[in-house]
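Lab manual, section 2.4: Encoding a predicted structure.

Procedure: take the sequence of the chain (88 residues), apply the prediction step described in section 2.3, and record the output as structure tokens. A sample record is shown.
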Amino acid sequence: MAAPPLDGFYVWWHEDTPDRIRLASNNPDIVGDDGEKPGLQIVFSSNPRSADYHPANFNRLARWLELSGEPHPDPAVVADRQLDRRPR
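Recorded output:
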């Protein structure tokens, strides 16, 4: 379930993937190298083992979902984002 647009972007979270929040735009002017698949999707993860780990942005969007009355995850624990310092 997607929340209302956030200045042209949609934010959504689903309990099936509790460690991921997605920020997306379906703007037709944003296209891939092949000129197809318009739009953009960015994933912020609360999992320190993920390449998408970004607890600050995950928490920002989780708070926004909560304020919007949408389903939202618990806040991410903030840890070091440097790959060589993350838990293995």
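Check your result against the sample. The mean pLDDT is 86.
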